[in-house]
């Protein structure tokens, strides 16, 4: 006879009887105390031990150049107005010591660093006349305009005019131009009337 099977059936019956006795325990009895003791063995969390509630994700920073331009104040307000009206502006460009020249064109865009994007630009600048010595190492200089044309590069045409014995004036027309803010010395809003423009040029 297999004793293991017999012992297993006896233990199983005893556990069923204990469970029935616990369920049918009367209030105030020792069996009820046993049930309360079993509940006390379960872990009880305090308030600071409870799971932390999650927070909603922060909204993405939507601050960009478009919103900045709509909220500008002070001198940049005039730039925004000229940009919307497609007015011509004259930008005085600086160099290391003094003013290099001026740029005149339509203001397309700007930012808080005074970086300017101009279209249909007329550049006027001055420089000194440089007297170069004869270069005997490289030989006779050659025109490489045809190489640039093969690459699809068109250089702006320059008009050089002698002002005095030491300086020359250079004029050139550019389709588009980006001016860094650190080079901007002054921005002048030009009037829209053509007659006043001619008077200023003369």
UniProtKB/TrEMBL annotation:
<dbReference type="GO" id="GO:0006398">
    <property type="term" value="P:mRNA 3'-end processing by stem-loop binding and cleavage"/>
</dbReference>
<dbReference type="InterPro" id="IPR039267">
    <property type="entry name" value="Lsm11"/>
</dbReference>
<feature type="region of interest" description="Disordered">
    <location>
        <begin position="1"/>
        <end position="31"/>
    </location>
</feature>
<dbReference type="InterPro" id="IPR001163">
    <property type="entry name" value="Sm_dom_euk/arc"/>
</dbReference>
<dbReference type="InterPro" id="IPR010920">
    <property type="entry name" value="LSM_dom_sf"/>
</dbReference>
<protein>
    <submittedName>
        <fullName>Small nuclear ribonucleoprotein Sm D-like protein</fullName>
    </submittedName>
</protein>
<keyword id="KW-0687">Ribonucleoprotein</keyword>
<dbReference type="GO" id="GO:0071209">
    <property type="term" value="F:U7 snRNA binding"/>
</dbReference>
<feature type="domain" description="Sm">
    <location>
        <begin position="81"/>
        <end position="189"/>
    </location>
</feature>
<dbReference type="GO" id="GO:0005683">
    <property type="term" value="C:U7 snRNP"/>
</dbReference>
<feature type="compositionally biased region" description="Polar residues">
    <location>
        <begin position="1"/>
        <end position="13"/>
    </location>
</feature>
């Amino acid at each position: 006879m297999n004793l293991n099977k017999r012992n297993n059936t006896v233990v199983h019956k005893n556990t069923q009887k204990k469970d029935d006795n616990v369920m049918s325990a009367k209030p105030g009895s020792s069996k009820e105390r046993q049930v309360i003791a079993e509940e006390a063995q379960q872990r009880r969390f305090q308030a600071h031990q409870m799971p932390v509630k999650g927070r909603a994700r922060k909204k993405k920073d939507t601050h960009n150049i478009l919103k900045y331009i709509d909220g500008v104040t002070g001198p940049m307000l005039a730039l925004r107005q000229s940009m919307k009206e497609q007015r011509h502006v004259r930008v005085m460009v600086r160099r290391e010591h003094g003013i290099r020249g001026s740029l005149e064109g339509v203001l397309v865009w700007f930012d808080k660093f005074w970086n300017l994007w101009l279209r249909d630009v007329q550049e006027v600048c001055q420089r000194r006349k440089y007297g170069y010595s004869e270069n005997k190492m490289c030989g006779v200089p050659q025109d490489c305009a045809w190489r640039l044309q093969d690459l699809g590069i068109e250089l702006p045409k320059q008009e050089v005019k002698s002002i005095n014995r030491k300086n020359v004036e250079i004029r050139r027309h550019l389709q588009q131009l980006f001016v860094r803010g650190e080079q901007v010395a002054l921005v002048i809003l030009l009037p829209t009337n053509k007659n006043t423009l001619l008077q200023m040029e003369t």
